[in-house]
User: Which sequence fits this backbone?
């Protein structure tokens, strides 16, 4: 990334400088009946890429006219990098200003929609602290980590059709649950509605069925990242999850940010993984810099309740990708895979209310708080920042959602 300064007012030195440039799908408040299209965020503005790309006769101009990022995702790493360089030159070259400036829209005048059409959705379980905490809470009399956990990134297939964009309300789900002191299960609204603070990875370039994707090919296939909230109904989950894993306790809603941050924006945030012991099998081997140092913040009704550190994650996204395809399962453009709850070693670094309240037994959020799980009307927001390549910090798009009462 050349150290050139953007001419966009207020953007240089902000958390949305030219070293960030996340993509989203937006529509402007003045548009009537028009579908959204692809924009890129710079400072407090969104650049409407389609008319600029058309004016410059960009080879891939058509991808910006779509109401989803999928045509852009379906290109390859070389094209993603080329488009990014083109956008940087638009926003830093004074000679481009006359063409570009009329297509900058204030971010508070646009509405973001779901940024891409989700193909398949997989959720992993890559935090050692989270997996250990959940093991202790759900299975107090057993080893917290199951025998496979340090040998492979554990995951499950989620529900792609219920992934929603930030700002979408989440209705409290109903289902079947049975407390340990009850003889029989009952049906009704979950009493243990929770969040999971996660990082989602968006797959661009597909792979062929029958062929596995190596850890070294991670950047050829994964386009970018976004904060993700894996809403969870703990009472439904606890009753249903043995032996086949999460199902209706998770599938009612998953919220993602409206902005997808390209992988290249995170080049300065790469860090080594924590030590892996035992060493994983060869197909899961990665070199230095396989992890990411991303600082998350969990806000409940505007108050910070946790700061989960992504740098503590045990398994890297390249390992998740390699494991997800090691049996020959193919990747499709628009596949989404998520890290699992990000939790650090300290109490205020836990990325779920289940852990913050230790299974509902220890209210959190201050000495007078009775807070354990989510109430109707609560709003949860996940924010994340990382080191940018220009020396400051970049912001990942935030993901927020408000709980509405059960039907
Ligand atoms: Ca999860």
Assistant:
């Amino acid at each position: 990334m050349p150290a050139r300064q953007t001419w966009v007012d207020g953007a240089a030195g902000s958390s949305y400088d030219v070293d960030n440039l996340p993509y989203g799908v937006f529509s402007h408040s003045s548009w009537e009946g028009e579908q959204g299209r692809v924009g890129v965020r710079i400072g407090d503005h969104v650049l409407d890429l389609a008319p600029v790309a058309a004016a410059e006769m960009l080879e891939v101009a058509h991808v910006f006219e779509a109401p989803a990022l999928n045509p852009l995702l379906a290109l390859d790493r070389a094209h993603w990098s080329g488009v990014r360089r083109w956008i940087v030159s638009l926003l830093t070259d004074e000679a481009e200003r006359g063409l570009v400036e009329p297509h900058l829209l204030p971010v508070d005048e646009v509405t973001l929609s779901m940024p891409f059409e989700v193909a398949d959705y997989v959720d992993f379980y890559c935090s050692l602290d989270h997996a250990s905490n959940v093991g202790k809470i759900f299975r107090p009399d057993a080893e917290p980590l199951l025998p496979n956990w340090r040998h492979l990134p554990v995951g499950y297939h989620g529900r792609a059709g219920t992934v929603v964009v930030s700002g979408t309300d989440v209705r409290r789900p109903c289902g079947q649950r049975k407390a340990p002191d009850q003889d029989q299960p009952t049906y009704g609204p979950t009493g243990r509605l929770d969040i999971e603070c996660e990082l989602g990875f968006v797959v661009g370039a597909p792979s062929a069925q029958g062929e596995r994707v190596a850890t070294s090919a991670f950047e050829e296939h994964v386009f970018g990242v976004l904060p993700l909230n894996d809403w969870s109904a703990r009472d439904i989950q606890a009753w249903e999850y043995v032996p086949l894993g999460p199902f209706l306790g998770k599938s009612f809603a998953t919220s993602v940010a409206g902005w997808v941050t390209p992988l290249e924006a995170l080049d300065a945030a790469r860090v080594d993984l924590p030590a892996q012991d035992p060493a994983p099998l060869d197909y899961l081997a990665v070199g230095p810099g396989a992890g990411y140092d991303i600082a998350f913040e969990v806000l409940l009704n505007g108050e910070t309740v946790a700061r989960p550190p992504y740098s503590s994650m045990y398994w890297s996204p390249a390992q998740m990708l390699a494991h997800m395809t090691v049996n020959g399962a193919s990747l499709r453009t628009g596949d989404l895979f998520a890290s699992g709850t990000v939790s650090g070693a300290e109490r205020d670094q836990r990325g779920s209310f289940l852990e913050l309240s230790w299974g509902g037994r220890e209210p959190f959020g201050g000495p007078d708080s009775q807070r354990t799980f989510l109430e109707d009307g609560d709003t949860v927001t996940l924010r994340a920042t990382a080191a940018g390549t220009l020396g400051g910090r970049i912001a990942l798009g935030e993901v927020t959602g408000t709980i509405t009462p059960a039907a």
